[in-house]
Write a structure and sequence with these properties.
The protein is of the alpha/beta class and 360 residues long. The protein has a single domain, classed as Zn peptidases (Aminopeptidase), CATH 3.40.630.10. Helices cover 31% and strands 13% of the residues. The protein is built from 8 helices and 8 strands; from the N terminus they run αααβββαβαββαββαα. The chain has an 8-stranded mixed beta sheet with strand order 1-2-4-3-5-8-6-7, sandwiched between helices. A hairpin with a 2-residue loop joins β1 and β2. The longest helix has 20 residues. Bound molecules: zinc ion. The site of zinc ion (ZN) has 8 residues, from α4.
Length: 360
């Protein structure tokens, strides 16, 4: 995320954020199990379709080591290429290094690595086509840049590692009825620039976007509850995650918040329904090393990142297999308050109260 929040963190502390589920959220079942056995069946509506293979486990054995390697290389823990260690992903040269690495990762997964360029930056992306031609498109993305002098392991190498893991996993799911775009956004930290340019480009191409999902900061979980905050969900996007969680037998609490300081904000002005995923940012269980030189590999909770990625894998398997009719009516982006103001309001009102829509 991009804003300076020392003041807002103080607000959260004063408000005494708690872990109980407020009205309007799916409370889930909190767990303090340090290494839960995740039952990652997708099940239900997509797992037993005639002519389709069973959806493979959303918790593949390669998951943690794959994500550790990505976060290590992006955050300078290990060399991103021989002899090159990134101190941040803010300078032009370091962003170029990171971008090349990400394109190579997509290529290694078997994708055509694409680049959506704009004045000043470029967003690497890849498309997993539907199993038969489809005009339905789902977007999942995370920003790859960091603040100057910050290795950005949590913010946001973790989100990148989640998106790449979904890109790897989803290839093993057949009978996909939508195309899925995997995007790594440039220049989030200077004002959501890359995601805005990508949203504008999607709009200019008249690409039919069903929903946009962005992930930012997914590596801190000091209370061990594996909870995820779902930011500004349009339409039924929150309910869809709750349904996937249930179908997959997962137990992490899912909370809705009004947080708007990251990439999902870029898409609504173009008419795209969006949702953001993050650690418990509003709820106060978030990295204390935010936007500092201490946002390092060693501080990332990879078990938590894995837990969230399992939900994301299950969710995108499910979304990709859903028919257009099963998505329900197109979600209409809501009119949200300006990003920073909305974020401050959530904090000031005591953690999560600013946005608690009726269940749908
Ligand atoms: Zn971020």
């Amino acid at each position: 995320m991009r804003i300076a929040v020392a003041m807002l963190i103080a607000f959260g502390a004063i408000a005494g954020c708690t872990d109980d589920a407020p009205a309007g959220t799916d409370g889930g079942t909190a767990t303090t199990d340090a290494d839960p056995s995740i039952d990652a069946r997708v099940g239900g509506d997509v797992d037993s379709r005639p002519g389709c293979a069973a959806v493979p486990t959303a918790d593949p054995t390669w998951l943690t080591s794959y994500q550790q390697d990505i976060v290590a290389k992006l955050s300078g823990q290990t060399a991103i290429r021989p002899g090159v260690y990134l101190s941040d992903r803010a300078t032009v040269s370091n962003r170029n290094e990171a971008r090349t690495f990400l394109q190579n990762q997509l290529t290694a997964l078997g994708y055509t690595a694409r680049l959506q360029s704009y004045a000043g930056g470029a967003n690497p992306y890849a498309i997993l086509e539907a199993s038969s031609p489809s005009s339905s498109n789902i977007i999942i993305g995370a920003h790859f840049d960091s603040v100057p002098g910050g290795p950005g392991a949590n913010d946001n190498a973790t989100g990148v590692a989640a998106v790449l893991a979904v890109a790897r996993y989803l290839q093993s799911v057949d009978c996909r009825q939508s195309n899925v775009y995997f995007v790594l956004f440039d220049e989030e930290e200077v004002g959501l620039v890359g995601s805005f340019e990508f949203a504008k480009w999607l709009s200019q191409q008249s690409i039919n976007v069903v929903s946009v999902h962005t992930i930012d900061q997914m590596g801190w979980d000091s209370d061990g509850d594996r909870a995820i905050e779902l930011e500004r969900p349009d339409g039924n996007l929150y309910v869809q995650y709750v349904q996937t969680k249930s179908a997959a037998g997962l137990t992490m609490p899912l909370y809705q918040t009004g947080t708007g300081a990251t990439d999902h904000v870029s898409f609504r002005p173009f008419g795209f329904a969006a949702i953001g995923l993050t650690e418990e940012y509003v709820n106060g269980d978030t990295t204390p090393y935010y936007h500092t030189s201490n946002d390092t590999y060693d501080t990332v909770n990879f078990a938590y990142l894995r837990s969230t990625t399992v939900l994301a894998n299950a969710h995108f398997a499910r979304l990709a297999r859903m028919s257009a009719a099963a998505f329900g009516p197109p979600a209409t982006p809501r009119a949200w308050p300006p990003s920073e103001a909305g974020h401050a309001m959530v904090r000031a009102l005591g953690c999560r109260a600013a946005y608690a829509p009726a269940r749908q």
